[in-house]
């Protein structure tokens, strides 16, 4: 991230330099974790029949890898004094780290974590969207194409797995101990995902519905909303 060249639109705004590098790291994690999650489920499809106690070394290592990324990103936000503008993502990371650590220690619900990490496939295109907006790429066709791909992938790899796991936990998982903790995390994540989805729709498909974005300085924000 430090070695790659920065677009002029990023270099001209000091507040964007950190965000650009942070997004490049996020993009790298999304590519690795998203493809890894797909490979784990393709290689061991029998895992889907036992979400609570199914186990694979690949899935376990993937959860460890992503936990490391969330810890790194949390520290990056804090040490670069971006906590105030990125507090939503600190909350998300705290939820993910606590949930993933409990899975790593107990070895249970690892399959659920792998299913959740399919979201990283969606994050590939979401991050590309933000990088394009930050760099002011002169080709609107590229942004338009990514916009529709991003919407389709958002449904397939973010909303669908999240909806399935929410249904599964509410129906089959005992609401006590680790099960109760993970169910609460899942429901909070549902709310956050729906909030982000509504922002994405307003920004890319219904810009006339956006409120309060005029003149707002977003240089310090971790993710570009508008």
Provide an overview of this structure.
With 226 residues, the protein is mainly alpha-helical. The protein has one domain (11-204). The protein contains 8 helices and no strands. The chain has helices at residues 8-11, 14-43, 57-79, 87-106, 110-116, 119-135, 140-172, 177-204. Helix 3 packs across helix 5 and helix 4 (87-106) packs antiparallel against helix 8. The protein starts with 7 loop residues before the first helix and ends in a 22-residue tail after the last helix. The model is unreliable at 213-220 (pLDDT under 50). It is a multi-pass membrane protein. This is TLCD1 protein. The chain crosses the membrane at residues 23-42, 111-132, 152-170, 182-201. One of its GO terms (cellular component) is plasma membrane. Pfam families: TRAM_LAG1_CLN8.
What is the mean predicted local confidence, pLDDT?
89
Secondary-structure-based class equals: mainly alpha
Number of β-strand runs: 0
Query: What is Rg?
Result: 18 Å
What does the overall shape look like?
globular
Helix content: over 70%
- Figure out the total of helices: 8
Largest sheet: none
Transmembrane segments: 23-42, 111-132, 152-170, 182-201
Organism: Pardalotus punctatus
Domain TLC: 15-209
GO cellular component, one term: plasma membrane
């Amino acid at each position: 991230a430090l070695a790659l060249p920065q677009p002029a639109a990023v270099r001209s705004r000091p507040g964007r330099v950190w965000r650009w590098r942070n997004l490049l790291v996020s993009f790298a994690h999304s590519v690795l974790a998203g493809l890894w999650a797909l490979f784990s489920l393709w290689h061991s499809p029998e895992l889907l029949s036992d979400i609570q106690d199914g186990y694979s070394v690949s899935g376990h290592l993937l959860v460890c890898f992503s936990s490391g990324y969330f810890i790194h990103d949390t520290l990056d936000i804090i040490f670069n004094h971006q906590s105030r503008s990125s507090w939503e993502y600190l909350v998300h990371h705290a939820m993910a780290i606590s949930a993933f650590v409990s899975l790593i220690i107990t070895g249970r619900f690892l399959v659920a974590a792998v299913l959740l990490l399919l979201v990283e496939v969606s994050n590939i295109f979401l991050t590309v969207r933000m990088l394009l907006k930050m760099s002011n790429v002169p080709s609107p066709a590229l942004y338009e194409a990514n916009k529709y791909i991003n919407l389709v992938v958002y449904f397939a790899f973010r909303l669908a797995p999240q909806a399935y796991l929410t249904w599964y936990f509410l129906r089959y998982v005992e609401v006590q101990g680790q099960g109760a903790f993970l169910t609460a995390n899942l429901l909070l994540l549902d709310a956050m995902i729906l909030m982000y989805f509504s922002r994405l729709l307003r920004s890319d498909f219904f810009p006339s519905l956006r409120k309060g974005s005029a003149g707002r300085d977003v240089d310090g924000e971790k993710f570009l909303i508008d």
